[in-house]
Design a protein that fits this description.
The protein is α/β, with parallel strands linked by helices and about 210 residues long. A 7-stranded mixed sheet has the order 3-2-1-4-5-7-6, with helices on both faces.
Amino acid sequence: RIVKKLYVITFNIDSEHTQDEILNFIRTILVLPSEKKGVIVEAGCFKGSSTAKFSLAADIAKRTLVVFDSFEGIPENDEPHDKNIFGGKAGFTKGDYCGSFEEVKLNVAKYGNIHCCRFIKGWFDETMHSFKEPIAAAYIDVDLASSTRTCLKFLYPLLENGCTLYSQDGHLPLVLDVFSNDQFWLQEVGFKKPTVHGLGKSKLIKVVKEA
């Protein structure tokens, strides 16, 4: 039933992901052990297609889905993106991938389960520092290296041991530099760099927090 709904959502809402990427995270949500505390976190939701999809799984798992987004698109930046690891073009300008707050909520209410969602509006570096809830699973799709740093800095320490954080930006060299940086992990995140599964090979990469 979920898979059928995913295709309906993709048909009706602009989506910058593959069904396989979404299904990977949905599986993670659905198999979370009940003893693992925490909410589900999504950072970067565009027009709410992924949010609607994740909300279906969060509702089944009886978890809250916390959605971080500026609802103004990509922030102003000067990051020198050029090509992704597969040779395709990569570049992000202010306002790219914008879905308004009202548009996203309407899409999620129509196609997902908005009752299990909580939306946190604003730039990541202004909102995430005050978020202190345990996280059972996280999915970040934020495009910029700077946004990735912010997400890892504030979300990874809240991730429960044995739980997973995904990034949909594993095809972007500048983002990979962040995930590969030992000093960043130690000095800014406060943890030894974990194993990054799919690093340099896949668009969807993940880390599992070890005890």
